[in-house]
Sequence to fold (611 residues):
Amino acid sequence: MLNTCGRNVAYVADAGCWSGGGRRGSLVRGGVGGFGTGAPGAGAGGTSSGAGGAGAGASGLVQSTLGAGTAVSSYDPAITATVGAEHQTTPLANLQIYRVPSLQLNTGQFSFGYLQAFPTGTNISFQFNNNRQSTNSPFLFLSPATSGMFRFTIQQELLAGFGFGPNLRYLRIARNNKKISDIAFKDQVIATVTQIENIYWDLVSAYEQTQVNEQSSAFAQQTLENAKKQLKLESIPEMDVMRAEAEVSKRDQDLTVARTSLELQETLMKNAVTKNLSDPLLETMPVIPTDRMQTDQIQIVSPIQDLIAEALQHRPELAETDVDLVNRQISRKAARNALLPSLSLVGFYGGSGLAGPLNPLCQDCISNVPTDYAGGMANTFNNSSPDYYIGLNLNLPIRNRVAKADQFRSELEYRQAELRREQLKKQVRIEVRNAQYALEQTRARVEAARKARDLAQRTFEIMGKEQELGAGSSYQTLTAQRDLSLAALDLVSAMTIHEKARVELDRATGTIGVSPGNNSPGSPAGLQRLVGRCYGAIAGIPVKLGRILLVIAHVLEKVRVEREKVQTADAFVGHVVGNGFGKSHIVGLRVSSAEQLRHFFGRIQRGPVIG
Fold:
């Protein structure tokens, strides 16, 4: 499977996934009503910002109820603190109250607070305040006076906002949206694998057609040379030579068309697996497929019910709708909870303390509080001056029309999501049946084309024997060979359509590019480990990216180990890899120098892993 003409040839396997293209435009779908990533489409019917339906239409005045419900506090704790000092001078109208013409207060303050909410609907807070104040008034017993207080408060919702359901809905919806993003990535991978496989089979078709046209052109050229020799011996008329020349001209034209089509398909394949084609060396490097279409082996299609069951299990669209339906159910329950009155149980416990020396300006003053700061703090927390409270707070909105509207719309959106899921299931069934019918039709076309090719081959052999025995002319043999070439080209086209139909059936069932859960090179874990060594940038890919990525990863791993050992001017790197279906094939690279080898793989390493 080597090319010895001295050109740079890259051998690739039959299907891969290194292109950012696909049937869909992006990895992340549109959000549902502007919240998160959401499910496919614009949202639930017309109740979101999507066009049509009973909502506000394209203007988006009516938003989706996804995430509706009671207000949710942040579950991250918060700490507050305040430190400050103040000097205040207040003029007084008389001396009877403070016995000074102007009252001077020097105040130092420190406060600390801690707040936290819990998913059960519970809120707790702790607050501590501490003041130190001195004055110039002789009527105040303590100067400086130190005071402290603390309060621990707890509030528990009993109706609206009670429990994990309403309070964890945003986190649960966010986790589900992450699942939707992962599923959308899998859907993008399947679309990209489908695209690359179709490109590959077009490349194989162009390669096979070129070979058929080369054989046909070579036979016509040989026939023309034989006819010219026979004309010199005057054994055939000149008209046979003219017919042979005309046939050679026509087949040269067909060969030129086939070669240009092959170059175009090579360009499309290189465009799919590389970052750009600005490098002249990479642009001129031909691509030779290693997996060919097997005309003698056609896989038997599974029963339609088994195919539909696989599609319902593996199609990413259905998985997305299931996760979106879970989000709708979460919002539905939260909106129903918001209809309840707001009843909360509130309680707090606190204490206070006071300390300070007697005011030296105060005569005959007596105090029973501690004089030092430590004594005041001890009185604050020793339950000598407690402060506690317990009670209920009730908020009963009259009619509550906003919450009722949200709850009604959430019910409608949930039912619409159920209908979308059932419609998608019916669409999947139709796609699977259509793909199966197309595969059966293409299989029948392949059988007919194979029989036509075999009959044309037998006719050509008979005409050749008749020409050798002198019972037939070279023109008849040339015509039989032309019919054989047309039959071979028709078989190539039929096999290409059949392979594409098989790819479409795999896409319709959602099994394209998905490998069983093992640790082989073709499995997700094996591919992740192998490609991670080559690139160091791929991690957590949940599906098989395709054979092109796998092949290039194998070759890059081989090149990484053997690169320093390449000393000759003509280097070959080969590796036997499995193609994921129990077969094996050779993957090789033919270059004319070690520098070109490094250059080629350097180009691919800088290319995108997936678009």
